[in-house]
Amino acid sequence: MKLKHEKYTLELSSTRRIASGSFDSKDNILVNLFFENIQGIGEAVPIHQFNEDYISIDSWFDSIQEDIPANPEEIKSTADLLSEKRVPNSVIAAIDMCLYDIMGKIKRTSLYSMLGLFYIPQGPVSKTIYINTPEKMIEQAIRFKGYPVIKLKINSEMDLDMVKKIHDASGYSKLIIDSNEGWGVDEAIDKIRFLKKHEYILFFEQPIRARNLSGLEEIKRKVNASVFLDEDIITLKDLDDTRGLVDGVSLKIQKCGGIYKTIEMITRARKNNFKVLLSSYTESAISITAASHLIPLVDFIDLDGNIYVTNEKYSGAYIDAKGNMIIPSRPGIGLTAINALH
After folding, report:
1. Which of its termini does the chain have fewer beta carbons within 10 Å around, N or C?
2. pLDDT-based confidence at 322, cuts 50/70/90?
3. What is the domain count for the chain?
């Protein structure tokens, strides 16, 4: 199979700011695999948490050319081999997407059907309000008015009264509070205690720095609230190490290493009695659509990583007016080139 890769700079309609930083665009990698006359499409998203950038990730694609299988059915063995070689998960995810896309096109079936899943429109998919001035965040909440679920990014400086103001301005949406490791343990305990009185809060996501198991134990001991982990959860071992400490986990196909690896993680999460949030980074419709096929396997959906992207190359899954994710039934991942629509 022939491998091609190129920079794909996602231009955003507004600045995205979370507790750890902000950005106006994102340099991802568009990946194509060609099997005979069939094109498989994938995307690699450098992950800030792992100190990755476009240059460090893009260089991997030249080095793994010899590991690309001649047979596109070898999805599992390819993912396992690349993992053994310590290839970054975002690179593995892009190759994994391409292989699944090719196989779906060969079999002339959608990815979710190929996985043995039955799909009906499901939601709600949460939409995210990023850290900004109080006025800007209220404006965004008003734009989302009537939307079922909003993920609210928060940091140590934010006035907690803003949470209720955003809830009210949104038309009383349910909220997910995501501090992206932004709180200390004592701070998290105090703030979760203050906020958990609001019945419209679904859960608190990654309140403290990752790899602080004792901190998670203290939060669980002192606060009766639903907590999910994101940055803490990368491997199957992480799911085992945090069992019993929290209620759920946030999984991303880029972080897990693709569709096959994410299904492995979902299976282990269920074994460990975790609820599962299927989430995303700042990604294009390529990754979002690939991930959307796993929606029947999860409890919560946070696949809005491309709603601010202004230069999409492909169309695929989308969120309808009711907040449901509509997944394409076309063969493979189900992408259509934007220029082919005009």
Report:
1. C
2. confident
3. 2
Question: What is the pTM assigned to this prediction?
Answer: 0.94
Q: Are residues 94 and 131 in the same domain?
A: no
CATH of the domain at 19: 3.30.390.10
Residues 71 and 182 in one domain: no
* Residues 28 and 119 grouped into a single domain: no
SS3 labels along the chain:
CEEEEEEEEEEEEEEEEECCEEEEEEEEEEEEEEECCEEEEEEECCCHHHCCCHHHHHHHHHHCHHHCCCCCCCHHHHHHHHHHCCCCHHHHHHHHHHHHHHHHHHHCCEHHHHCCCCCCCECCECEEECCCCHHHHHHHHHHCCCCCEEEEECCCCCCCHHHHHHHHHCCCCEEEEECCCCECHHHHHHHHHHHCCCCCEEEEECCECCCCHHHHHHHHHHCCCCEEECCCCCCHHHHHHCCCCCCEEEECHHHHCCHHHHHHHHHHHHHCCCEEEEECCCCCHHHHHHHHCCHHHCCEEECCCCCCECCCCEECCEECCCCCEECCCCCECCCEEHHHHC
**What is the pLDDT of the chain when averaged over all its residues?**
95
Task: Kindly state the average pLDDT of the residues 119-145.
Answer: 91
